[in-house]
Amino acid sequence: MNLTLKIWRQSNAKEQGKMVDYKIANVSPDMSFLEMLDVLNNELIEKGDDPVAFDHDCREGICGMCSLFINGEAHGPDRGITTCQLHMRKFKDGDTIYIEPFRAKAFPVIKDLVVDRTAFDKIQHAGGFISVNTSGNTQDANAIPVPKHDADRAFDAATCIGCGACVATCKNSSAMLFVSAKVSQFALLPQGKVEAADRVLNMVAEMDALGFGNCTNTGACEVECPKGISLENIARMNREYLKASLK
Amino acid sequence: MAKSALLKSSLAKKYWMALTGLFLCLFLVGHLAGNLQLIFGDASAFNEYALFMTTNPAVKVLSYVTYISILFHAIDGIVLTIQNKKARPIGYAKNNAAANSSFSSRNMAILGTLLLVFIVTHMANFWAKMHFAEMPLQKVEVKVEGQEPVLIYKTVQQQAIPVNAVEMGQLEVKGTQFFQPGTDLKVADGYKDLHKITVEFFKNEKTGLIATIAYVLAMVVLGFHLSHGFGSAFQSLGVNNPKYRGCIKGLSFIIAYVIPALFAIIPVYIHFFK
């Protein structure tokens, strides 16, 4: 396949970036999207150009490190996958592909397609944890009965890998799907109930302070989420927050 | 922190948006019930309803809640929209939003602004006239067998006041009230003829058709706004659960499609068939 790539190039956080066109030839449909970018970078390095910086780590869809807004969608046109799981067979010979970084005020660009997502870590630090006694007499988690239904929903919420596709996709750059998944995975379990009220209040306050937008329930995040995190989590967070604020 | 949480936080703004929005949906149901009398009732029924809506104390309280809801919903919406725009200073070169969200959900602010423009013109055309302007009083034709039909004013006290009695100066009209000439002895209260104003508005030779089309278009905008807004309000208030989803979807269909359609039929009926 021969492709035209339109890629966001920005040399550092302060510099103004722009879209730059690249031609790439002989792309195999069996390549992953990131392998295609690796090939492009090899060519750029051989020519003495600056390679395109992009985030990646495990390349098997579990680490949440890869990002990219491809042809107008977070993690590209396919559903339920991260960018590293996207294959070139999803594109046709002669296609033009737009590759942009995840865009949000709270996710500033570091270089090219790499954005700073430590805002998510800050939200986690604000309450995405449970306080457990680790002095050696910790209670066995299996000793606390959890209804299967709750355990399943908590697990579904916990599959969030914190990639930020929800923020990138949301027209308001809202982080509510991420925050609600983190609130839900604890709120549904007995171990998480102890700190539930403080957790939701503090995590939402941190999310607001970091400059993420407000949810308008477009549902785009749920569609683009590589892990299929449901909007029901946002509704649960809204309930938890209301309950906690009235306390 | 928890104290200000119900006023300032992102989630609180959503709660208020949802509550005011749902109240305005309820208002629409009541408003529609009254308007349908333009099709199914006569002029008297409609004018009696209009008088009730402008004078009943309970309705007055509700009407103030409605005005506040409209203002709050609009202001909250503007604040949210500005914050949301700020959250993404640099946009995408290509954004395929249609792949993951509905047209309505992405354009609530524009749809809402159009509705606000509609509400202001709508209130200027009808509400302001009913409340503040000099209005014609409703006249009814009474037929007695073997005699010429007589035009009388319809009154709250069910008194027959012949129109020519007023013309000949036997009675004096101040606002909506009939008095003995030169005194402050009130004889009866007339009905503001909102029915006539409404029918003439949509049947006007020059502007009636434009008014009818504009009204129908406004109802299309309302339909789009509610098709996202009604269900969205429940999500914001934390009610999204497979248990209730069917019920909310059904109600949403009625609120977003049936109600605006019924509203839109009324001016069309008046313009073309009345």
Automatic annotation (TrEMBL), chain A:
SUPFAM superfamilies: 2Fe-2S ferredoxin-like (SSF54292), alpha-helical ferredoxin (SSF46548). One of its GO terms (molecular function) is electron transfer activity. Residues 151-181 form the 4Fe-4S ferredoxin-type domain. InterPro entries: 2Fe-2S_ferredoxin-like_sf, 2Fe2S_fd_BS, 4Fe4S_Fe-S-bd, Beta-grasp_dom_sf, Helical_ferredxn, SDH/FRD_Iron-Sulfur, Succ_DH/fum_Rdtase_N. PANTHER family: SUCCINATE DEHYDROGENASE (PTHR11921:SF41), SUCCINATE DEHYDROGENASE IRON-SULFUR PROTEIN (PTHR11921). NCBIfam families: PRK07570.1 (NF005746). This is Fumarate reductase. It comes from Myroides marinus.
From TrEMBL, chain B:
Signal peptide: none annotated. Gene3D superfamilies: Fumarate reductase/succinate dehydrogenase, transmembrane subunit. The chain crosses the membrane at residues 65-82, 108-128, 209-230, 251-272. It comes from Myroides marinus. GO terms for cellular component: membrane. Keywords: Membrane, Transmembrane, Transmembrane helix. NCBIfam families: sdhC_b558_fam (TIGR02046). This is Succinate dehydrogenase. InterPro entries: Cytochrome_b-558, SQR/QFR_C/D. It comes from the Bacteria. The lineage of its organism: Bacteria, Pseudomonadati, Bacteroidota, Flavobacteriia, Flavobacteriales.
